[in-house]
Write the structure tokens for this entry.
Amino acid sequence: MDIDILARGLVAGSLYALVAVSFNILYRPTNVFNFAQGELVMLGAMVFASLATVLGWPWYAALIVTLLGVGLLTLLIDVVAVAPVLARSQHGTGWVITTLAASLIIANGVNRIWGPDPIVVRPPAPLTTDTFSLAGMTVSAYQIFLVLLTVILVLAIEQVYRTRQGKAVLAVAEDREAALLRGVNPLRLSRWSFFLGGAFAGLTGVLAAPVLYASTGLGPALLLKGFAAAAVGSIGNNRGALIAGYLIGVTEALGAALLSPGYQEAVVFLLVLCVLLVWPHGLFGRPFARTV
Amino acid sequence: MTMASNAGQAGDLLLSVEDVDVGYGHVGVLEGVTLSVRRGSIAALVGRNGAGKSTLLRAISGLLTPSRGQIVFNGRAISRDKPHAIVGAGLLHVAEGRRLFRSQSVDDNLELGVYGLKMDAAGYQRRLARVFELFPVLEEKRRLPAGALSGGQQQMLAIGQAMMREPVLLMLDEPSLGLSPLLVDQVFAAIMALQQAGTTILLVEQLVERALEIASEAWVLQNGRMIASGPAAQIAASEELRAAYMAAH
């Protein structure tokens, strides 16, 4: 068996973990899954690719504009499609449809503007996607960077929840009404979380672009596998999402290598199904369970 | 809107609930309810289970919006305000059932007590010291998750969390519920200490006799209507009212 599978699995798994974390950022204060998250990752990749590759902007300028742009669009999704639904009923499920609608609108819009051709994105120097051999694996400097950066980003996001605002988000997640009675304004925290979760999705797209190419077809696959990583890692648990992301990425690569690439999705979701049958709340418990 | 020109003077009305109707959806719970609390006092709100005491506190703190009437706090109409704005005005509600953030530490819970307030580290430490002075056990357990505390300690933490904001008015809903007699004494001593330090208190308490001992005025709620009010000693002495607030157990 080819040991490169591990490298491919970890790289893909890193991206799934990042999508899962972006789900969790939005979920914590709102209990809402933003099903537009996959298309936001795709949008991040397309915007960055257009600015950096097509227009030739320096990568940091393209990065800042992409994060702000995708973050603000996600904030708009909250204002237009999520907050009004929750204002009517805090435990309503209308957001399933409204966030899916946002997802379809973004997908259609992006298709209209960019068309189906993928755009090649080069990583910023000195990183390259040129491969070399490391411990028997064929890897590139960018792949190693991506896997390491993912770990750093997950740990950094966890630090956000050690700030007072972050603790307030956790408080809203645990007992919304008790948080209200301590002066927390959940709407404001939701808005910030949507902006941050959106910018994080945009960043995921930027990071994915050099390995997957920027194309309008990125969204659905990242949405499903990112969601699977969030579920397997226990919803709301970012470290869980990281490990689950790797697990799913490696399983997918194994499935493709051992069976055939045509079966890789089936193998992934068979794994997800088995895990969730045995541990309905994911592998890492239920740290944000509500107490009544 | 009523504007109190002498806001801040002891003895004036700090909170007044004026002819308020409150319900959940189309189900009315409170009808034409009136209540007032004098600045610096302890007021007791008594009544049987289901009389609407918690509903009234929830309306005052903005979790429910009255369909009629108005609520004035510190000279300002608050009946349409959001809960965080009411907290910001200095009205704190310690809800029934020790609603803490159980997965977060005692320290983090106390820190959330000052959420949204700007203060320097010294000011924060001073407030923290006041809470630990009243409830020393919280200092010993400050690194533990709130969920690991005993029932009595959780109640102390809930009160301490509200104290961190140095409230003008503190509403306590059933602070003695489920506590051993010794802990009940501690909680009552803490309530009196808070009042002596200048905090006005509105107390809902199943131990009615004890509540009436420390309160100056009392309000009696029955089936969603305020049926009596007056000096706590008078309410306590009335055999007729006793039937209205004593739970049948």
About this structure: Chain B has one domain: 13-245. The longest strand of chain B covers residues 13-24.
